[in-house]
Amino acid sequence: MAAQAAWRRLSGSTPFRLALWLVLASSVALTVLMGAAALAARARLVAALEAEMEAQIESLDATPDVAALEALVAAQAEGMDQDQAVLAFLGPDGRVVGNARATLGPDGARVEDGDDDGYLLRAEPMLGGTLIVGRSRAPVSDLGEALTTLLLLGLVPTVAVMLGLGLLLARRADRRVRGIEAALAAIAAGDLAARAPEARDGTDLDRIAQSLNRAARAQAAAVDSLRQVSTDIAHDLRTPIQRVAVLLDRLTARAALAPEAAGLVAQATEETARIARTFQALLQIAQIEGGQARDRFGPVDLRDLARDLVSVYEPAAEDSGHALGLRVEGPGPFTVRGDRDLLAQVLANLIENGLRHVPKGGRVEVGVAGEAGRATLRVRDDGPGIPEAERGNVLRRLYRLERSRTTDGSGLGLSLVAAACELHGARLALGDAAPGLEVSVAFGTTGGASGDGAGVGGG
Fold it and tell me: 408: domain range?
């Protein structure tokens, strides 16, 4: 199967197809040239044979009488091989002299004991009779066979060499194209550090690879600059905001405020705390994207993690009138490699998101599935869900659905979840729970991830 897939890929590559077209064009050109050469050589050979016959006819045409002509024809024919040449004179009295039983019919001269198609024959009236002169066509046939053999001997190696060269070029180009495709796939998946291999040989594929790498570097620089700006803003503003919160607390504690003023101060304190949480979330996302948490990676049992988080949030769910449950499926494994604190925050954000948006009386279910070397975390709810067209947008920073603007939150919860999933090499998917939303985080197969990824271990 692998060999067939490789052959299909190579046979569909542009260099190989160009090589096939070149082989076809070269074969046609060589065949036409050899055919033209064969026709020209044949024409010259036939002309030489006809000239030889014409010379023989002219030498005999000067004979004064029939008897002398018969004697001369008999003398010349005696040393001739009928397979090579025919010379015969049909006298006025019907007598035939020569080296072949030649006759003259409505269709022209013919040799009764030979193959008419094997001779070039010419009949010439002479002294009341007919002189028949012929030459074997064997040299013409031999020439055609020799040229055909020469064509095959030249064409087959040429086709083989050109096909081999085309296959070699296709393999080299395929490696370059696969490198470019892999870089494009990695960049599309968010790995802006991916680069296509460059050979610096000035070919079109190399120019494409260089252009792709320049674009990737520019995009990475722009993204890094944007991330750095947001991180710097969050870092620089966090301290002043915290100071404002402290001053508001002091004002509340020291001053006897009127009810209206106290309400405004309380509202300002709440908004300040909300801003501080937003900046803290931005800083945490920046830290996750920076990869600092990889140093803390270790085995994490998703079943234990889910049980702990459900136990922590069950009282809050009861207070808000929600049902919070846990569902474990499959034989395992359930252990992945990652940062337990960060994965706990991922699950906490998803649970809080469900409790925040599901109406009172609704249900939020945490699921853990382990099967076929894969471990998956799921959080389902029976709330309003997220429209399919918006599921990509809600992963962006600070993006909030219109109906969510009246609820608490910064629009960074799912952004943090997405950043953590990317760090762990897990696939985040938002789906329809019919009704409600289902968020799944699927970790890699057993042994399939190492280093930075989150491979699944035994449970």
Answer: 293-457
